[in-house]
Write a structure and sequence with these properties.
six-stranded mixed sheet
Length: 122
């Protein structure tokens, strides 16, 4: 999978997402900071990336547009954790959400829970 880490999260998270199977880029290195969320969604869809964000607006945009791509991983309540703890938590749960993300989904990860909502949201 290819991840696009939103500017609401640390670029260091890219290190935890990159592996033999996956790549990750931060928004500042690809699109640039300050890009509207709709622009980020369009760019992620065109490049086949999954958006990793703490911004709840992405879910709203996907629901309103009835899009089935790109998948979005929304991290909630992780910002109180260190970047290392955030990265390890996301990394530890990638295996169980991989199929949903590849099929098209919004995945919400909290320190205590994971919720998966298939796309499109109708």
């Amino acid at each position: 999978m290819r991840f696009l880490v939103d500017e609401s999260l640390s670029p260091t998270l890219c290190e935890y997402l990159a592996s033999d199977l996956d790549t990750a880029n931060h928004i500042r290195d690809t699109i640039g900071t300050g890009a509207p969320d709709a622009t980020i969604l369009d760019a992620a869809e065109k490049s086949g990336q999954i958006v990793l964000t703490a911004d709840t607006d992405f879910g709203t945009l996907l629901a309103r547009s009835e899009r089935s791509r790109p998948s979005v991983v929304l991290v909630r309540d992780l910002l109180r954790l260190s970047v290392t703890e955030q990265g390890l938590l996301i990394q530890a749960n990638l295996g169980q959400i991989r199929g949903a993300l590849e099929a098209g989904a919004i995945v919400v990860i909290t320190p205590d829970d994971i919720r998966v909502r298939p796309l499109p949201i109708l």
